[in-house]
Specification:
The chain is of the alpha/beta class. It folds into four domains: 193 residues, 3-Layer(aba) Sandwich (Rossmann fold), CATH 3.40.50.300; 159 residues, 3-Layer(aba) Sandwich (Rossmann fold); 86 residues; 71 residues, Orthogonal Bundle (Arc Repressor Mutant, subunit A), CATH 1.10.10. Helices cover 47% and strands 17% of the residues. The chain has 26 helices and 19 strands. The strands form four sheets. The protein has a seven-stranded parallel beta sheet, with helices on both faces. A six-stranded parallel beta sheet has the order 8-13-12-9-11-10, sandwiched between helices. The protein has a four-stranded antiparallel beta sheet with strand order 14-17-15-16. β5, α7 and β6 form a beta-alpha-beta unit. α2 packs parallel to α3, α13 runs antiparallel to α22 and α25 packs across α26. The longest helix has 28 residues. The chain is globular and about 110 Å long. The model has no long low-confidence stretch (mean pLDDT 86). This is ATP-dependent DNA helicase RecQ.
C-alpha cells in the first residue's frame, strides 16, 4: 500500500494534510466506516480520494450533484488518475462496455447518482467489482431531517449488502446534530469513526445590514473588496440588472444563471478564475465545486432560502485564510416577503399532480411509458400553454427531481430543424451569388443526409465549433435563408433538460410520495423561519448563531468581527470613552465655568462626545448652564 503522504504530494503537490484529513484517511485505511463533517472548503474530497489511491480496487462515489461529479472526474483525469462518471441514458450494451473497461483498465473512481442504484443491471455489475471504498458525498441528503433529502439515497444500503466488508465514508458540510445521527442510522454504519471540524469561520466577518438602498451598498462593498467577489441573487433577471449596474460603475462583472449555454458558463468561469473579471453575479447554482482561494467578498442581495445554503455560500469566501467578508443586505419588508413568496411557491400534493399531468401531455408521453426518455423544454413556453405559475412549476420540477421521478438540468440551447425546399442546382447557384452563406450550407449538406427530402435536426453547437461562427450568427443566417425561400426552418429554444426515471403513472406516481411532499413543505417553512430569526437577532454574534444552528457547541465563542460584535465593541468603547471624558470635563470645570468649545479645545475631544457627556452631567445635577452657554459645577 502506497503511503498517503506520498500520494498527496504526487497528485496534489501538498506536503502536509490539513486539519483532520490525516486522521480520517488513517481510520479509513484501517477499515473503519467514517462520518466526515467538515465545513465547505474543508478538504472533504481528499479524505476519500487519497485512501482510494492507496488501495487496490475502485472507489464508488455517490453524489446527487451531476455538475460536481463532472468537475471532480475532470480534475482527477487532469492529474492522470482514471475516473469515470456513469451518466444517465446509457443502454445496457453501453453500460456493459463501460464496466468491462473499468474492470480491465484499472479505474480508481466510479461516480454515480443515487438513482443509479435502482437499476438491477447496474447492481449486478457492481457486485463483481473489486471495490475498495464507498464514499457518500452530500450525505445529508439521506436524512428526512436534512435540508435536501432525496429518497433515492435510501437505496445506498444495497451497496452495503453487496459488499459488507467495504468501508463506507459519509461526507457533508451542512448537517445539524439530528441529521448527523440520522446519516449513521440510515447508512447502517458499523461503529463509525466520527470526524467533525469546527463550523466556525474565524476569518469571515458576517455583516448583516438593514438598508433602503441595497444597490448603493453593493457598489460600496465591491469597491472596497481587494480581490474576487460573488454576488448572490434569487433570479436570472436580477443577475442581468446588477451586472449592468456594476458595469455602469466601471466594475468588471459577468452574470451567471441557468439560461446560459455550457460554453458561456465555462467562459464566464474561466474569466473569473483567471481574475480577468472581478465579480460574478449569480443565482445559488454558482459555486458548487469551485475552489477559488482569493474570494474577498460574498454579497447576498436577497435573503437566502435556508441557513444551510447561506452557510455554504459564504464559505466560498476567504479560503486562502485571509480576512474576508460576507455581507447580506435586507430592508424592512424582506423578511415578510421571504415568508410570503416562498410559502406561495412551495408545492402541495395537488400542485405536483397538476404540473406532472400537464408535463406528460406537453411531451406526449403515454400512460406507462417515458422511462429513461430525455426531453428538452422551455419552461416559459410550457407554463404559458397551461397557464401555470412559473416559479411554482419550477419548484415542482425540483421536487420531482428530489423524488427521483425525473432528473433535470438547467441548460439553455436553441434547437433547429431545417429542410432545403429548392433543388440542388438552384441551391448551388444561390450560394455562388451569396458567398456569405456558402460555408454554413456546405457544412450542413456534408453532415446531414436527406435534408432535401425531410426536416432534419441540426446541432448548432457542432456547426459553431466547425465554422467558428457564433450560434447567434448561425441562427440569423438560417432565418435569412428561410426569408429568401431557400430553406424551411423550425426554431425552438429550451432551458431545461428532463430525463424521466420511471414510467408515467399519473396519480399513482405522486400518491406514493405524499408523505415526503408534505414533510418537505414543513421543512421549508422551518428553514425560512430560521433565516428570518437569524437576520433579525441583533443581540447574539452571527457566527455563534450559525454554530448553534449546526450543533457546534464546542466552539461557541463570539467572533468579534461580525456586525453584532462590531456594535457591541463600539458601545463598550463609547462607554469607556465617556467615563474618561467625564473625569476630564469635571477637572476642567473645577478650574472655572467653560463653554463647550473651551472644553473641546482643552481636552482635545470630539464635539459630539463632549455634548453627550455634558447632557448626562446636567441630567444628574452635577453641572448647570449659565448665561452665554457657560457650564459650571454644582456644589
Amino acid at each position: 500500500m502506497t503511503d498517503p503522504k506520498d500520494i498527496l504530494f504526487q497528485y496534489w503537490k501538498f506536503s502536509n494534510f490539513r486539519g483532520l484529513q490525516k486522521e480520517v484517511i488513517e481510520a479509513c485505511l484501517d477499515g473503519h466506516d467514517c462520518c466526515v463533517f467538515f465545513p465547505t472548503g474543508g478538504g472533504k474530497s481528499l479524505c476519500f480520494q487519497v485512501p482510494a489511491l492507496a488501495r487496490e480496487g475502485i472507489c464508488i462515489v455517490i453524489s446527487p450533484l451531476i455538475s460536481l461529479m463532472q468537475d471532480q472526474v475532470q480534475n482527477l483525469k487532469l492529474k492522470g488518475i482514471k475516473a469515470i462518471h456513469l451518466k444517465g441514458g446509457l443502454s445496457y450494451k453501453e453500460t456493459d462496455r463501460i464496466f468491462d473497461n473499468i474492470a480491465n483498465a484499472n479505474y480508481k473512481f466510479l461516480y454515480l447518482s443515487p438513482e443509479k442504484l435502482q437499476s438491477q443491471v447496474l447492481l449486478e455489475r457492481l457486485k463483481y467489482l473489486n471495490i475498495s471504498l464507498i464514499a457518500i458525498d452530500e450525505a445529508h441528503c439521506i436524512s428526512h431531517w436534512g435540508h435536501d433529502f432525496r429518497p433515492a439515497f435510501l437505496d445506498i444500503f444495497k451497496l452495503r449488502d453487496l459488499h459488507p466488508e467495504v468501508p463506507i465514508m459519509a461526507l457533508t458540510a451542512t448537517a445539524t446534530h439530528r441529521v448527523r445521527e440520522d446519516i449513521q442510522n440510515q447508512l447502517q454504519l458499523k461503529n463509525p469513526k466520527v470526524f467533525k471540524s469546527s463550523f466556525k469561520r474565524p476569518n469571515i466577518a458576517i455583516k448583516i445590514l438593514q438598508t433602503d438602498n441595497k444597490w448603493r451598498e453593493l457598489i460600496h462593498q465591491v469597491n472596497k473588496a481587494k480581490a474576487s467577489v460573488i454576488v448572490y441573487v434569487r433570479s436570472r433577471k436580477a443577475t442581468l440588472e446588477l451586472t449592468k449596474l456594476l458595469h455602469q460603475n466601471q466594475i468588471t462583472a459577468n452574470a451567471f444563471h441557468g439560461g446560459l449555454s455550457n460554453l458561456d458558463r465555462q467562459l464566464i468561469l474561466e474569466q473569473w478564475l483567471g481574475n480577468k473579471v472581478k465579480v460574478v453575479v449569480a443565482t445559488s447554482a454558482f459555486g458548487m465545486g469551485i475552489d477559488k482561494p482569493d474570494v474577498d467578498l460574498v454579497f447576498h442581495m436577497h435573503l437566502p432560502e435556508s441557513l444551510e445554503s447561506y452557510y455554504q455560500e459564504i464559505g466560498r469566501a476567504g479560503r486562502d485564510g485571509n480576512p474576508a467578508k460576507a455581507v447580506l443586505v435586507y430592508n424592512s419588508t424582506d423578511t415578510q416577503r421571504l415568508s410570503h413568496q416562498f410559502l406561495k411557491v412551495i408545492p402541495t400534493v395537488k400542485d405536483v399532480k397538476k404540473v406532472y399531468k400537464h408535463l406528460m401531455s406537453y411531451l406526449q408521453i403515454a400512460y406507462g411509458e417515458g422511462d429513461s426518455e430525455e426531453f428538452g423544454i422551455d419552461l416559459n413556453t410550457f407554463c404559458s400553454r397551461y397557464n401555470l405559475p412559473l416559479r411554482k412549476s419550477f419548484e415542482v420540477l425540483k421536487l420531482l427531481d428530489k423524488l427521483s421521478i425525473l432528473s433535470f438540468n438547467q441548460q439553455y440551447q436553441i434547437n433547429a430543424r431545417i429542410q432545403v425546399v429548392v433543388s440542388h442546382k438552384v441551391l448551388l447557384n444561390y450560394l455562388r451569388q451569396n458567398q456569405s452563406f456558402k460555408d454554413l450550407m456546405t457544412l450542413i449538406l456534408r453532415t446531414y443526409g436527406g435534408i432535401f427530402d425531410l426536416f432534419t435536426s441540426i446541432n448548432l453547437n457542432f456547426i459553431s465549433n466547425k465554422t467558428g461562427f457564433s450560434q447567434k450568427k448561425i441562427k440569423n443566417d438560417l432565418m435569412a435563408l428561410e426569408s429568401q425561400g431557400i430553406i424551411s426552418l423550425k426554431l425552438t429554444q429550451q432551458d431545461l433538460i428532463l430525463r424521466f426515471l420511471m414510467p408515467r403513472e399519473d396519480d399513482k406516481t405522486i400518491n406514493s410520495q405524499k408523505k415526503f411532499i408534505n414533510s418537505y413543505r414543513d421543512q421549508k417553512v422551518k428553514q425560512i423561519d430560521a433565516v428570518c430569526d437569524f437576520v433579525q437577532n441583533k443581540n447574539q454574534c452571527f457566527q455563534m448563531q450559525l454554530l448553534e444552528y449546526f450543533g457546534d457547541e464546542e466552539n461557541k465563542m463570539e467572533c468579534g468581527i461580525c456586525s453584532v460584535c462590531d456594535a457591541q465593541n463600539i458601545q463598550l468603547t463609547t462607554k469607556a470613552n465617556r467615563k474618561d471624558l467625564t473625569i476630564l470635563i469635571l477637572n476642567e470645570l473645577k478650574k472655572g465655568p467653560k463653554t463647550p468649545d473651551d472644553l473641546i479645545k482643552a481636552i482635545n475631544a470630539e464635539k459630539t462626545q463632549v455634548i453627550l457627556v455634558l447632557k448626562h452631567l446636567l441630567e444628574t445635577n452635577k453641572i448647570e448652564i449659565q448665561p452665554n452657554n457657560f457650564y459650571k459645577l454644582l456644589k
